[in-house]
């Protein structure tokens, strides 16, 4: 996995074009992330979801793990967060990767996972793209994923399939359809060997930012740790 700090190098752009993602290590300072984390924890306490390191009685606990994420994203709102984290500097980096300036930026959405959701697995996940690229060779946008707190491996980080934006070309070369592999495989890492596609777990330190080609298949994952997963995301759409 490539881990880069600014300024971007030509090799970063080459890596992004080939793999479909790039990690910007320490893009935002930890002190800034600590302030956002505190605001989130205060809001979870107010909503009677989490306090003092313990889960509080909440209807959320009855929901399946990925429905919990969706519900929390609608409940927890942090005023001013979008402007604080989806900065002009980040837009400039995205413009460098895309070769043109974003035409629109979607509001930032929190991605929160409660702890101890179950056993971490690559089976039964919802691999998807958020927008269809027309034509498939055209980059529709870049999605930014921000780590507000440290996210450990198997800690509920978003997963993406690096290289999956080129899957259509590989299918034309008579390789198995990627979606068929995702639906039927019981050992995804092994099944993807030789395809040029591999699973990337967006784990890391507070302040890290992952930038993802929006043609990549991605999915939520199970948080098998005892810590809340705190991430945020926004989509940077590209004009023609």
Q: What can you tell me about this protein's structure?
A:
With 240 residues, this protein is of the alpha+beta class. The chain is 30% helix and 21% strand. It is built from eight helices and twelve strands. It has helices spanning 10-19, 30-46, 65-75, 81-85, 88-98, 167-172, 178-184, 188-191; strands at 3-4, 21-24, 50-51, 54-55, 102-105, 109-113, 141-147, 159-162, 198-201, 209-213, 218-219, 229-238. A hairpin with a 2-residue loop joins strand 3 (50-51) and strand 4. The mean pLDDT is 90.
Q: What distinguishing features does this structure have?
A:
globular, 12 strands, seven-stranded mixed sheet, single chain, 240 residues, three-stranded antiparallel sheet, 30% helix, alpha+beta
Structural class determined from secondary elements: alpha+beta
> From the structure provided, what is the oligomeric state, counting identical versus distinct chains?
single chain
- Beta-strand residue fraction: 15-25%
Overall spatial form: globular
Secondary-structure element series: EHEHEEHHHEEEEHHHEEEE
Helix content: 25-40%
Supply the number of helical segments: 8
Mean pLDDT: 90
**Cα separation of the termini:** 30 Å
Largest β sheet strand count, sense and barrel closure: 7 strands, mixed
């Amino acid at each position: 996995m490539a881990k880069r700090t600014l300024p971007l190098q030509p090799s970063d752009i080459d890596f992004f074009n080939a793999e479909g993602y790039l990690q910007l290590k320490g893009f935002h300072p930890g002190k800034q992330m600590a302030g956002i984390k505190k605001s989130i924890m205060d809001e979870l306490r107010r909503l009677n979801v989490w306090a003092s390191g313990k889960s509080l009685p909440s209807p959320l606990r009855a929901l399946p793990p990925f429905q919990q994420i969706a519900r929390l994203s609608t409940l927890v709102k942090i005023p001013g967060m979008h402007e604080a984290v989806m900065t002009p500097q980040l837009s400039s980096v995205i413009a460098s990767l895309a070769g043109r300036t974003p035409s629109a930026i979607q509001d930032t959405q929190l991605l929160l996972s409660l702890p101890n959701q179950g056993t971490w697995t690559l089976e039964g996940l919802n691999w998807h793209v958020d927008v269809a690229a027309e034509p498939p060779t055209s980059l529709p946008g870049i999605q930014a994923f921000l780590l507000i707190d440290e996210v450990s491996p198997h800690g509920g980080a978003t997963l993406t399939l690096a290289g999956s934006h080129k899957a259509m070309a590989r299918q034309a070369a008579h390789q198995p359809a990627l979606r068929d592999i995702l639906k039927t495989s019981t050992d995804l890492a092994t099944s993807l060997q030789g395809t040029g596609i591999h699973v990337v777990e967006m784990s890391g330190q507070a302040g890290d930012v992952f930038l993802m080609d929006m043609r990549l298949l991605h999915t939520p994952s199970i948080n098998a740790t005892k810590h809340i997963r705190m991430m945020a995301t926004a989509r940077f759409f590209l004009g023609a």
